[in-house]
Amino acid sequence: MALVREKDGKRLHVKSNLMGESLVSKEFIDQLDIAPQERLYPDVKLMKIGGQSICDRGAKALPQVLKEIVRNRADHKMVLTTGGGTRSRHIYTIGLEMGMPTGVIAKFGSMVSEQNALMIATLLSPWGGVQISHSDIVKLPTYFAENIIPVMHGMPPYDYFAIKPKVGRIPIHRTDVGLVILADLVGSKTVLFIKDENGLYTEDPKKNPDAAFIAEIGAQDLLDNGQDDLVIERPCLEIIQNSEVLDKVQIVNGLVPGNITRALNGEHVGTFIYKQ
Predict the structure, then answer these.
(1) What is the rounded CA–CA span in Å between residue 178 and residue 181?
(2) What is the C-alpha separation between 240 and 273, in angstroms, rounded?
(3) Are the C-beta atoms of 102 and 156 separated by less than 8 Å?
(4) Total number of domains constituting the chain
(5) Chain centre distance of CA 73
(6) How far apart are CA 159 and CA 64, in angstroms?
(7) How does strand 44-49 pair with strand 77-82?
(8) How far apart are CA 244 and CA 261, in angstroms?
(9) Domain encompassing residue 257
(10) Which of 101, 132, 128 is nearest to 114 (CA)?
């Protein structure tokens, strides 16, 4: 690219469409010509193992979920992420009572999610489970060539730079959001939330057993519904809607034997939330 100096002779630019732009002009961004986003690893299956729903149940739930994942190891390239669960809620409560800012509370949540990632990687170590960091994503082809199951903590790496929500100080970008951001990054076609519920309901089925099950719904429709309680974090829906490569995410009850296998094979198990 050619170098161009401004008329006043003070600044030197690389000649491009972005030359001299502030990147805050809405009109400019709308008109910017960009190539379609590449799907880096479309065949990689991304799964988040719920913290409160699976990990916190310990021996009553986690081993059977991991055994089913291991049974699928030969047929699928899988990356696991982890939630924080009850311990993250505990430290959030203490942090709020002590007046901690959102960034510190987010850091607390990252530490708990990382504990669960270490536990799961250790349990999977006989079958190639390895804990990885966010910066190791570019090494995925190497891991799969060595039959490794990468396990990564699910909290987005904002930590101290977490965005304060409009109300309160609990970070809105937590481990569900981390999975969807990762899916958008790698262009995965299979994104599974492994939880202890059959999927999305009109209300929390643990609180209202008469809540109606929703087999599939568009992300924008779900946003517009204004539903008080959701099975995944609300910002996930906006990320799905804005994504160039995400088609859908799937919520699966991992406590039902065979559900994870069916979902990995593309069957409609649980709830699909799709981009509209």
Answers:
(1) 5
(2) 9
(3) no
(4) 1
(5) 21
(6) 32
(7) parallel
(8) 27
(9) 40-274
(10) 132
Structural element, H or E, at residue 132: strand 129-132
Report d(CA 175, CA 49) in Å as an integer: 10
Instruction: Write out pLDDT tens, residues 92-150.
Output: 999 999 999 999 999 999 999 999 999 999 999 999 999 999 999 999 999 999 999 99
Residue 3 belongs to some domain of the structure: no
CATH of the domain at 191: 3.40.1160.10
- 8 by Cβ neighbours in 10 Å (0-12 / 13-18 / 19+) ranks as exposed
Q: What is the pTM of this model?
A: 0.90
> In angstroms, rounded to a whole number, what is the distance separating the alpha carbons of residues 244 and 187?
9
> Which residue matches tokens 């519904």?
225
Residue 11 belongs to some domain of the structure: no
The tokens for 262 are 């069916």
60 within some domain: yes
Question: Is 19 among the domain residues?
Answer: no
